[in-house]
TrEMBL record:
Protein's UniProt keywords contain Signal: yes
Signal sequence, renumbered to the chain: 1-19
Name listed for the protein in its UniProt record: DUF5018 domain-containing protein
Keywords, comma-separated and alphabetical: Signal
Pfam families xrefs: Calycin_like (PF13944), PCMD (PF13201)
UniProt cross-references to InterPro entries, sorted A to Z: Lipocalin-like, PCMD, Put_CMD_sf
Keyword Signal part of the UniProt annotation: yes
PROSITE patterns: PROKAR_LIPOPROTEIN
Residue ranges occupied by any Lipocalin-like domain in the UniProt entry: 36-156
Domain of life: Bacteria
Organism taxonomic ancestry: Bacteria, Pseudomonadati, Bacteroidota, Bacteroidia, Bacteroidales
Residue ranges of every copy of the Putative carbohydrate metabolism domain listed in the record: 260-510
Amino acid sequence: MKKSLLYLFMLVCSVTLFTGCSDDDDAVVYPIDAEIAGVYKGTLDISLDGTTIGSDIPKNITISKAGDASVNMELKDFNFMGMDLGTIALTDCALEKDGNSYRFTGKQVLNVTQYNLTGDINAQGHISGNKVVVDLDIAAKLGDLEQAVKVVYEGTKLTGSESSEAKIASFIIDDEAVVEQPVINEEAGTIVFAVNEKAASFKFTPIIEISEGATITPASGVEQDFSNNKKVTYTVMAEDGTVKVYTAFVEGTRSVLKYSFEEWGEQADEKNPDNMKWFSPLPLDELATANNGVAYLKGFDFTNQYNLTYGTLEEKEAGYKGSAAKLITQYTKGAGFGMAPAITPGSLFTGKFDFRMVLDPKEQLTLTKFGIAYDKKPLYFKGAYKYEAGENFVDGSDKENVKENTGETDQCGIYAVLYEATDKDGQEVVLDGTSITNSEYRVALAEIKSGVDTEGKWVEFNEEFTYLEGKSYDSSKQYKMAIVCSSSKEGDSFRGAVNSTLFVDELEIVGE
């Protein structure tokens, strides 16, 4: 029945409703141009047989002078539930003064033979100051079906100086489940965002900024349900009543590989489990450090002259959110009876540290086995970091000619590499410190733009994966993902500043 009434209402509104409200009273002259005529900004409420089917629908109406004591009223481009219902027009409606306000009424006999539609239309209007209320009562018959439609409009007269801008300037959802913040397409009138595929709920509370002086429905800060492909319609009304409609919805889901460093475990040197212990972030089968190598060097530091600390330490209160990983570049020239390089940067990476005693510092780079299995197409590498560069920059690239206090400024390194997990013969590929930056099996890279000192501040980053020349993602292939963080960007060349300190937190790989 409701559908039939909506159909009926569409038919009614698609024609001019009023050919005349009443006869003019030429003996009375009212200040129509000065007090009544103008554009009114307001909203519509629509009910069907007593049941509300639409409320607070933004719309403007125009009241103009028809005669000395009569007015016209027009409501253009009436759209409801996606239907263009045309124009509602009341013409030559006689005014009646009621104290300090005015009233007008009109009747119309409806007879649309094409659709076997008949009925009576009664209209009442009340203008008080700069306010107007218009009631439309339609008693209609579609064949033998009788139904009642009631439309109530309430509006305020505009001054003419109001802004016509009706835009959503920003649309933000502060929820960890949202991995890609909403993107506004002004031309299409859409707002799309992506969520974690493991999100427990699709109910979010958008915080919205709109044009100055405008209003929005639903309001900012009101929770909305975006589950099951639901779309939420936001209507922005400018000061002058101009309306812009936006549709917000979840564009898709994303996989998220995330490390927040909230959980830590204790590790020990296999050869000295009772004496050499350190904290490491979980999961231990995905995240690795070079702390085992530091433990080995500490074992030879009988007099504690190097005062070595483990490169990854638990920092409960130092994180961007909760705890974080802390990486420190250490001075190790001569440590381990000369086996260690001049500096040892703090490092954290996905993969494992395959420790064994190696005399050649360059061969020590092969101990870091980067990467874990990854079966998505990576889109972004996100996270936060804080960095303080040390003062004594050491160039240990030539072990026989180490240079200290070179005056250079250290930088940190934070990047992620997608690489092929097998070669052309089907053999496993494992990139290490000698190949992570140059291997032919690298496919895509995402890294921070600058690793300079952050002056004590946390810096967020969100870097897009870019594909190397001639490379593309192939879902039929197997891949590994290597996340690499170092307190000295050139640490793989044994160059860096002593005590350079890097904190990293909330690392994420967002994939498709």
